[in-house]
Amino acid sequence: METYTEPSLTFGEPITGIDYEKRRAAFAIIVKDGKIAVVHTPTGYSLPGGTIEGGETDQEALIREIDEELGWTVAITDFLYVIDQYHYSETQEKYYLTTGKFFEAKYFATTAVPIEEDHTYAWLTLNKAEAELKPEYMRWAVQQYRMNNE
Predict the structure, then answer these.
(1) 60-76 in b/e burial notation, b at 16+ Cβ within 10 A?
(2) Could you tell me if residue 2 is inside a domain?
(3) Which of 9, 48, 73, 134 has the greatest CB tally within 10 Å of its CB?
């Protein structure tokens, strides 16, 4: 599966004088019966996925994150977007420049018990997900997906 490394868009503006830690992440758009899977944490809704660690590929990280967050087995079916987001993480108390790679994936089964206890999943309509997702780059990715699949 081909993936692109250059971001197509950047959301947020860097604050002068702040050092941003660069972070790579992978996220999934999983749609089933017209609804999209989202993860709910104490800080709000996000797409399933997270930080790419060590020598992981984008796809390995995404599969690991979905297993940790949801206990799901998925198949990654398509690469969609690369988007940068400047943001502050309230939980980690750090400023990040996250390069997020977005993939389409298909849910197969729940095969494990999630290990991130404060993460639960929900199925939202695409419109509700656009409104509820906290990170701006995730809202944009869902909007583009919806527009390209109507």
Answers:
(1) ebbbbbbbebbbbebeb
(2) no
(3) 48
